[in-house]
Amino acid sequence: MTFTVDTASSQSNQAMTNTATGIKVKAFESNSVIDMVTKNYEDGVKSIAYKFLQVSFENMDDNITLKKMGDNEFWEVNKEALRDAVRRYDIRIEA
After folding, report:
1. Cα dist. 43→6, 34, 82 in Å?
2. pLDDT digits over 15-45, tens only?
3. For labelling, which of 3, 7, 27, 71 has a CA lying 20 to 30 Å from the CA of 52?
4. Considering the entire predicted model, what is its pTM?
């Protein structure tokens, strides 16, 4: 990204940074950096989630038991459901 305005300088150094165009350029640059950080964070969490599924399957001896909220009942999930989790499930993380 290149702009004709130095967005890092203080606003008194350049007249253009006080205009709507200067403000728009500064906002766009800040939003681009935040967007990049957010996407990297989402990709990192997604990678950890896939690793968690794979390691969980490799280290499980029994099926998974999940407690239902508010009840005294339980769900039992067959451990084979996680065998090819990396290929079968599409994990999407949104921050």
Report:
1. 31, 14, 21
2. 555 566 666 666 777 777 788 888 899 999 9
3. 71
4. 0.52
Q: What is the mean pLDDT of the chain?
A: 76
Residue 47: helix, strand or coil by DSSP? Answer: helix
**In Å, what is the CA distance from 52 to each residue of 14, 49, 59, 82?**
51, 5, 11, 10
In 3D space, the residue among 84, 92, 8 whose CA is nearest the CA of residue 47 turns out to be: 92
Whether residue 11 contacts residue 19, with contact meaning beta carbons closer than 8 Å, is answered with no
Asked if residue 30 lies in contact with residue 37, where contact means CB atoms within 8 angstroms, the answer is: no
Q: What is the mean pLDDT of residues 33-62?
A: 87
Which stretches does DSSP call E strand in 20-88?
64-67, 74-77
Least Cα distance to 46 among 84, 95, 93 occurs for: 93
